[in-house]
Design a protein that fits this description.
Pfam families: Peptidase_M3 (PF01432). The protein contains 29 helices and 10 strands. With 661 residues, the protein is an alpha+beta fold. The strands form 3 sheets. A 5-stranded mixed sheet has the order 4-5-6-10-7. Strands 1-3-2 form a 3-stranded antiparallel sheet.
Length: 661
Amino acid sequence: GRSLSDLLPKNHIFSYTLDIFSGLQGLFGVPELSAPEGFRIAQENALRKADLLVERVCSLPPGPQTVLIFDELSDSLCRVADLADFVKIAHPERAFREAAEEACRSIGTMVEKLNTNVELYQSLQKLLADKKLVDSLDPETRRVAELFMFDFEISGIHLDEEKRKRAVDLNVKILDLSNTFLMGTNFPNKIEKHLLPEHIHRNFVVTGSHVIIDGLHAEAPDDLVREAAYKIFLYPNAGQLKCLEELLSNRDLLAKLVGYSTYSHRALQGTIAKNPGKLVHPELMPWDPPYYSGVIRAERYNIEPSLYCPFFSLGACMEGLNILFTKLLGITLYAEQPAKGEVWCEDVRKLVSSQLMQSFNSSSIFKLAVVHESEGLLGYIYCDFFQRADKPHQDCHFTIRGGRLKEDGEYQLPVVVLMLNLPHSSRNSPTLLTPGMMENLFHEMGHAMHSMLGRTRYQHVTGTRCPTDFAEVPSILMEYFANDYRVVTQFARHYQTGQSLPKNMVSRLCESKKVCAAADMQLQVFYATLDQIYHGKHPLRTSTTDILRETQEKFYGLPYVPNTAWQLRFSHLVGYGAKYYSYLMSRAVASMVWKECFQQDPFNRAAGERYRREMLAHGGGREPMLMVQGMLQKCPSVDDFVSALVSDLDPDFETFLMDSE
């Protein structure tokens, strides 16, 4: 196959060969990281550079330069912390994981110290307090300055010494409680063997005289197994209950201390929703239907994943993404051979060609160069797609290095990792994806393209570093493409015969999706409402379990089961505290963008370019509502958001709603 330099427009070859990623040995091409000890060197260099930058910014008069140095400071720490964040969970070798964990800790401590460094704070404050200076800043620089200021204020820097110390203590306490709560959400429950009917023991792990229940077993066909798992796994644990109550009340104390009326007000600063008032439940959700069962409906369509898998080989799906990106954005993905030591799991067979199809039949980590037809190399995506022991189960996207404009005028290219858990190829067949896996691949690729196409001046707002309720828009939008017949038919080919996926099979698949969407939507509304109440006015009127029961009865048709406390397993309360509604908000925005811009023609280049220009290019450097407006060419109201969500559901469900309003 041709090398990448043959494919790049000639004026880009030079900058490409100078990039730090060329041929160096070490994780992600960082030379120090050829061994675990390298993390110490990398972190020490980053901390030394941070000290110099702090000194520099404190000695300069306020101006746009202040924001640039702040961003460089953030970049020098993030480049180590982001990389370490990924390595500490994904690297198969323990020594690497521990070294990365240590690096995260020391950089985290440094960030805490910087957020309470009064001199550093004052250098930014002088800039923001000078109206004439602020007016002279471009909107992106101004937004980035305000975001850095927001980080300071959350740490309570504007308070007196004693309160500031309290804010720091609360932050530490919240971090500890969050970790304890997260551990507890997955902790199995056990019950004495004789309390469970014998014939269902084999569905669980049995140790001595106890049966261990480690999850809900929601997929089990035996309803007794599901019932037992539900009641035992969700049985309230006193320690976990106390931990949640303390977490919520400490979050509330911190928010009040730094000047917000509730934690929810603090968390929604800068998002699409702006304040919790916009999320009042009757407004957001105009329906309150009885339980709407997806199960009965799904039987109408015969969706047997194994019938679909042969049409969705990984090579075919990647080719599908390539076709889509080429038509919409003029972008091609090229598979490249990583240098030895550059990836964290060395099971790499030589790639035979630059043709994507062949590259994925090896079961290794591969590297994609993202190349634009006229602009050249835009960034790199490392794909860690295959199952292996000890690998975390979730599918996710990691930023390894953010994009930013460097002082010498070069653009620092973004680097990300996509992690999935796909089956390995076998001797007789390539890796085959179920329809759900194919949709996930498109979803995660949406995040990756957001990172690749962001062209922000500052890495603090690169790609997916944007408000939570906007971050899922590009990924959910990709699901619409993955469920569109015109897109699927471009790439779904039987891996043996080359036959296209029959049209009736595609439409059955899309119909079945809509059916489950209604029950899922109701569940999301219930979760989002619960999260808002927990982070609203404190002290809470009553216990977290009573609030769960009331909210469930009001917003979710399934009755509450006595002696269960599902909220103690709700791990998203940690990462998405007061922001769980983001998923619904992102889905509403993605739905509007799809209908307005792509539904008529999913390959429309003009719409693709507008999407890149108005939404993807800005990362988090622009108000999310302005990006949505630029794309839709109108300012959506709460009603628009709601109807966008409702219109995606099953047609029968829509009429049912209209009748019940």
